[in-house]
Every structure is written in C-alpha cells, then in structure tokens.
Amino acid sequence: MEFIQTREPNIKKPIIIAAMQDMGNVGSIVINFINQSLKTESFRTAKVSFPTYVIDNGGSIDLPNESWDYKYTDDLIIFGGGKGQPQNNNELNLLCQDVIDVAKKYSAKFIYTLGGFHTNRILKNEPKTYVTTTTFVW
C-alpha cells in the first residue's frame, strides 16, 4: 500500500466516517453521497502497490486505478469510496491502521464505520439496521 499526503487540512478534533466497498456497495454509496453533499476536499490517498486485474480493451489493456481518498470539510474526515477492495488481510490491516493513524494525528473525537453485510434471511420489505459500538482509550 502507498499513502500519499497531498495537503495538510486545518482541522481539529474531527469526526471520521470510514467505509469501503462492501456487500451491495453500501459503504461506497454512502461515502460518495456524503462527499458530494458536503463538497469535501481530498487531502490523502491510499493506493494499491500493484494492480489486481487488468481491463481488456480487445487488443490493449488498461490498469485500474484502485485507490481510496481521505477528504475533509468542517472538522469532518471522510475515508473510503473509491474503487477496488484490499486483496488480502495485510492490505486490509494497513488501510485500517492508516485510518487509526490519521485519527490520532488529528485527535479525532470518533471513528464511525459503516457497510452492508450479506444475509440469507428473507427480510421481505422490512430491512434491518444493526449497530454495534466499542470504546477504546488511546
């Protein structure tokens, strides 16, 4: 993984919202909606070190741009959206650790994570929302 800091935002004790692509792409949909609604600005990018696939254009190939952005506005940091998924546990751990490192650097108040998960249960027209919390003192 490569982490590229492009600017230093002037934020103090932000709230962080983080999500990756997931089941049903819920995480990316929410992150993209927040970024568009709040007109956030990018300040850091996480990129994979090498492509995990190629795009066949019938005679030529393109490499995908698999990356995830950190964006900010008004003491809020948004991480995620983007394209692709971490390809192994090490990449996932590096991404998660970087979110924690950014939270520490800016003295974040909270880190909220979100996403969808697959279930075989039939919900009919009554989807469910599950919430879990943890408390950890740094």
Overview of the molecule:
There is one protein chain. Strands 1-3-6-7-2-8 form a 6-stranded mixed sheet, with helices on both faces. A two-stranded antiparallel sheet has the order 4-5. The radius of gyration is 17 Å and the shape is globular. The protein has a single domain (2-113), classed as Rossmann fold. The protein has helices spanning 26-38, 89-105, and strands spanning 2-5, 15-19, 41-47, 55-56, 61-62, 67-73, 76-80, 110-113. It has 2 helices and 8 strands, in the order ββαβββββαβ. By secondary structure, it is of the alpha/beta class.
State which percent range the strand residues make up: 25-35%
- Span from first to last CA? 25 Å
Order of strands across the main sheet: 1-3-6-7-2-8
Question: In angstroms, what is the radius of gyration?
Answer: 17 Å
Mean pLDDT: 86
Number of domain units: 1
CATH architecture title: 3-Layer(aba) Sandwich
Form type: globular
Low-confidence stretches: none
Count of alpha/pi helices: 2
| CATH topology call | Rossmann fold
The main sheet comes to: 6 strands, mixed
How helical, in percent, are the residues? 10-25%
Name the structural class.
alpha/beta
Level-1 CATH class name: Alpha Beta
CATH superfamily: PAC-like subunit
Order of helices and strands: EEHEEEEEHE
- Count of β-strands: 8
Which terms would index this structure?
138 residues; six-stranded mixed β-sheet
Characterize this entry briefly.
With 138 residues, the chain is α/β, with parallel strands linked by helices.
List the helices and strands and how they pair.
Layout: E1 2-5, E2 15-19, H1 26-38, E3 41-47, E4 55-56, E5 61-62, E6 67-73, E7 76-80, H2 89-105, E8 110-113
Parallel strand pairs: 2-7, 2-8
Antiparallel strand pairs: 1-3, 3-6, 4-5, 6-7
